[in-house]
Structures are given as C-alpha cells and as structure tokens.
Amino acid sequence: MSTPRSLVDEAAELFREFQGGKRSQIEPLVRLLNPTLWHLARGCGLERADAEDVIQTTWLTLVKKAEGIRDPQAVLAWLGISVRREAWRVAGERRREAPRQDAEVLVQVQDTGPGPDETVLMDESQRQLWMHISRLTPRCQAILRVVSRGGPPDYAALSETLGIPVGSIGPTRGRCLAALRQALATDPTWSTL
Amino acid sequence: MSNAADSPLENLDAGLMDSIAALYDVVDPPPPSLDDDVIFALSLGVLDAEIATLTEEVMPAMRSGETETTNTVTFTSSALQLMIRTVEEDDGTLRIDGWVTGGGIDVAVLSGANARWSTSDAHGRLLWRNVARGALRFLLRPADPAERPVMTPVIEF
To answer: Is residue A171 part of a domain?
Structure first.
C-alpha cells in the first residue's frame, strides 16, 4: 500500500498536464475534486440543484481562465474560492427571491440533514456520529465537512476555500474537533474510537 | 496559543476525519450524474455561455379522465427567450415543443451526457419527441456566431 497522495498534489499534476495541452486530463480532475466541491457548496447552504449549477459554472470558468493560473498547486484553492464566491452570490439571489416561492417549485428542496433513506444507510456508529456532529455549530459542521476531504497536506488549500486564514485553520479546526471529541467521550454508547 | 484544542496537524485524529468524510457521503452524497454532467458541459464548448433564468412556470395540470400532464416553462437570457411545453406521450416519454425568439437557432435538449439538437423554424418553433423524463436543460446556439450561447438551469421534467 502506497501512502495516499494529497488532493492538492494530484490535482496540480492533472491540471499541469491539462495546461500543457493534454485537455482530456480535465476529466480525471473533475472526478477527483467534485466530491470536495460538492461538500463545500452544500456546506455554504446551497440547495442541491443550486450546488450542481455552481459547480458546473466553476469548472467552465476554470477552463476559460486556465492559462491565467500560474501555479497549478493552487488549482484546488482556486476552484474552492470560486465555488464559495458563487455560492454567496446565489444565496443572495435566493434570499431576494424568497417571497416568490413559485420559482422554487420544481427545484427539489432538500435539507442538508439526512432523510429517512439516508438514515437507513447509516450504521449504528454513523448514526451516533451524525447526532453529535449535528449539534455542533453550523460553522464547525461546514469546516469538518470540507476539511475531512483531504489529508494534512491539503489543509492550507482547504482553509482557503473556506475563507479561513491559513494561520488560524489549525485552532479553528482543533476547536471543532475538540467539541466533537468531548461529545463522543461523554457518550457511553460510543465505542468506535 | 496554548489552548489544548490547538493540536498540531500531526495529532489530528485521522480516523475520526475519515469517519466524518464517509458520513457526509452517506448523509448528502453528490448526485451520481454530477461528474458526467460537468464533463459533458465542458465538452460541449459552452464556455462563455450565458446562464438563462427561469422566468415562468406553469405547474403540471392533470386533466380529468386523462393521465396526460402538461408543463410549461419559460427561460430568459439577455437576447433570447425560450418557452418549453412538455406533454407526456402514451409510452411515458415526453413530447417537447419549444418556441424561441428567432429562426435558425440551434437548441439542444441535454439529458446527462446526451444532446439532441433541433433547429428553430422561421416561426421559432422547435420539437423533440420521445424524450425520457428526468433532469433536463437546454443549450441555445444563436445563428450569429458572434453571440454567446445560452444555457438554461436544470429542470426536472
């Protein structure tokens, strides 16, 4: 077993090849980073349909502006920042549209919490973990949701996508994790960790 | 910075982080078609496409004694307007009638990684038949190549 490579490194390599003319490398890059972008967009409070649109728009913009991105190592941060910025714009539009509910009718409105189907898919320890995570602040939930997608070498890039100063991601994440560990530690039924 | 919560990166509980990532993939997974939809959009050369806004919807109306439902949606961009009316055919697929502001405009109905093109006639009319129900969007290529293509949001039909 080789050690898993960091998202940032793997993305940088694919993006460098893409910039160098191997255009098909955009495909593995999309597949590699979409889960992270998805959880980032959803963590920003976007509905599922809006999250899909925002992610698609972000990729289209990346391809259009690819030549201007000097450092391929920055591609994950670039995409993440773009998703977050676009998410804010869409969220603002939705707030203005809020009185006009009719425009939302065909959009599958879905809460970020698990529905009955998802709960069935969870095992016992996941249900417990979810119960404790859902009691954290929304900010902590969004941070853990995104930061858990990558390993330590990715934290700097992920913190940028979250809009957290790189220097404070450690303490911020640490506080969220500490709150979660504390909750798990006082749960007599929690035994997984 | 002596807070006990400020654990260094190395001490992060990797197992707990993995559990959190796995949990969110169960709780709120990305749509299965997300990757293919993005790759497809990139391959269509819809760069620079303007995203049209959904301006009007008429909810499906059930006619008494029939199972047929109709659904009308209107999209608007800065230069074009597209009205879509769907009718369910006997086999459960959709007949889609479209009207766009202008003739000779290529319009594709996009479903996942499928594109079906139609060109508007002199009256701006478009027609697709036997379109499978599901999440659809439309891509418009104006007759004048200098004008930007237009992409609509995805709508569930």
So the answer is: yes
Q: Where are the domains of chain B?
A: 40-156
User: Which residue range forms the structural domain that includes residue A53?
Assistant: 7-185
Cβ separation B28–A102 shorter than 8 A:
no
Print pLDDT tens along chain A (193 aa).
345 679 999 999 999 999 999 988 999 999 999 999 999 999 988 999 899 989 998 998 999 899 999 999 999 999 999 999 999 898 888 887 765 554 443 333 344 556 556 666 678 888 899 999 999 998 899 999 999 998 878 888 888 888 888 777 777 888 898 899 889 888 888 765 4
Question: Based on the structure, what is the number of domains in chain A?
Answer: 1
A114 contacts B37? CB cut-off 8 A: no
Interface test with A, best of B10, B28, B33 (most A CBs within 10 A): B28
> Is A190 within the bounds of a domain?
no
CA of A178 vs chain B CAs: smallest distance (Å): 6
Secondary structure of A36-89 in the HEC alphabet?
HHHHHHHHCCCCHHHHHHHHHHHHHHHHHHHHHCCCHHHHHHHHHHHHHHHHHH
